[in-house]
Specification:
- The complex is a heterodimer of chains A (about 160) and B (about 260).
- By secondary structure, chain A is α+β, with helices and mostly antiparallel strands.
- Helices cover about 30% and strands about 15% of the residues of chain A.
- A five-stranded mixed beta sheet of chain A has the order 2-1-5-3-4, with helices on one face.
- In chain A, helix 2 packs antiparallel against helix 5 and helix 3 crosses helix 5.
- The radius of gyration of chain A is 15 Å and the shape is globular.
- Among the domains of chain B are: about 55 residues, Uridine Diphospho-n-acetylenolpyruvylglucosamine Reductase, domain 2; about 90 residues, Enolase-like, domain 1, CATH 3.30.390.50.
- Classes of the chains: A alpha+beta (about 160), B alpha+beta (about 260).
Chain lengths: ~160, ~260
């Protein structure tokens, strides 16, 4: 089996994986980082979004072997101890979640947006979240949370 | 998904030799089309040859009369490129509407054209703009490259390395998209340049196709009114749970009008 080494949440992690192992399965099953979710498994819903080399990607559609050498950040890598990342705090403050299933992907996607566009308009937030589905909230509070999170981030992560 | 041998060579030659050494090798670029295909079991290659270690495939070069876009340029890169935005704004805008942000961060132009999904946006952009597909061994005009769904003239061991888009006088792309996948239910690229007027349709048929009657009408009178009365036959158009063939035929005319209007 191919060996893969990548930095996950700041820590170098190595493992032997099958070529067909998806990045999300590597994260969840081999590294026990179950904050990244599998929803549709067809790269549409966005529950599996993580950052790879600073960009948001759908980890259900990436091969772990192809992420060899990459710098990966998952939802578990955002908080600083008990202090939530400003975007996580904004989701809590603005009730940007109900069941929470889509939330890790929403937060990771939103942070990528703010890293590119520090002060997004409401329309830009809604357009950016094209690839993140929420079946509970109707999106209104998610959009509020992302805009508040953008303010709190002050122009970047 | 069946397992496969994985290779990540560091040169185009290494990619080609890995493909030649495989029973049934496939090139892996961004994986946004190929990985879902593998997950669905629609393909089970013996070997995957990744392009991630091959340098020099992600450049965007302005050659004056054309833009040369490296095969591994992502859709996000093309959409955000100031050179593409300035020289062929319709191409940057089209790339910015493929899939969603995460798909655009991974998916590549080379992967899209080599895969030739009948609902992908790049085939319409290539055929509409009159692009040339560059491989490791030859240049192929878009009109000759895109066959019926998933069909191209690429050899088993041939690699798309770049796509060259001629600079046109005006162009625009309009698409009616599936709201979940963002694939085109019908997408139309209209362009006017040295090559005359070209109208290319994706999403509606089994592969990208041009509409000669619209091209002739627009050459005579470049206006939305000129195409508003021109329909395409629904014979042979796709029909699925999103849209029937007749609806797709209707959408082709509507999208063509919108694209012409957007050309300004």
């Amino acid at each position: 089996m191919p060996a893969v080494t990548m930095t996950v949440n700041g820590v170098s992690r190595s493992a032997d994986v099958e070529g067909r192992t998806l990045l999300v399965d590597f994260l969840r099953e081999q590294l026990a980082l179950t904050g990244t979710h599998v929803g549709c498994d067809t790269s549409q819903c966005g529950a599996c979004v993580v950052h790879m080399n600073g960009q948001s990607v759908k980890s259900c559609t990436c091969l772990a072997v192809d992420a060899d050498g990459a710098d990966v950040t998952t939802i578990e890598g955002l908080a600083n101890g008990a202090d939530l990342h400003p975007m996580q705090e904004a989701f809590r403050e603005h009730h940007g979640l109900q069941c929470g299933f889509c939330t890790p992907g929403m937060v990771m996607s939103a942070i990528d947006l703010v890293n590119r566009n520090p002060s997004p308009s409401e329309g830009e937030v809604r357009h950016w979240l094209d690839g993140n589905f929420c079946r509970c909230t109707g999106y209104h509070n998610i959009v509020k949370a992302v805009m508040a999170g953008a303010d709190a981030m002050g122009g970047g992560s | 998904m069946d397992d496969f041998q994985y290779h990540a060579p560091s040169s185009v030659d290494g990619v080609l030799s890995a493909l030649r050494g495989a029973d049934d090798g496939k090139v892996l670029a961004g994986g946004m089309s190929l990985v879902p295909v593998l997950k669905l079991g629609m393909a089970a290659p013996s070997d995957l040859v990744s392009l991630r270690n091959v340098p020099g495939l992600s450049d965007i070069e302005d050659h004056g009369h054309c833009l040369k876009i490296g095969a591994c340029c992502t859709h996000a890169q093309v959409a955000a490129s100031s050179v593409v935005q300035e020289r062929i704004p319709a191409l940057a805008a089209m790339a910015g509407r493929i899939g969603d942000p995460q798909v655009r961060n991974c998916g590549t132009i080379g992967g899209s054209v080599a895969h030739n999904d009948p609902a992908a946006d790049y085939p319409a952009a290539c055929v509409g703009l009159g692009a040339t597909i560059i491989t490791d061994r030859r240049k192929i005009s878009s009109d000759d490259f895109f066959g019926s769904m998933f069909e191209t003239p690429l050899e088993e061991d041939e690699l798309v390395t770049a796509v060259c888009f001629p600079i046109v006088d005006r162009a625009a792309y309009a698409k009616f998209e599936n709201p979940a996948s963002k694939y085109a239910v019908a997408g139309v690229m209209v362009a006017e340049g040295d090559d005359g007027v070209r109208v290319a349709v994706t999403g509606a048929g089994a592969g990208v196709f041009r509409v000669a009657e619209m091209e002739a009408a627009l050459a005579d009178d470049f206006s939305a009114d000129a195409v508003s009365g021109i329909g395409v036959s629904s014979d042979g158009l796709l029909s699925d749970n999103v849209a029937g063939a007749e609806y797709r035929a209707h959408l082709v005319t509507v999208m063509a009008k919108r694209a012409v209007e957007a050309c300004g």
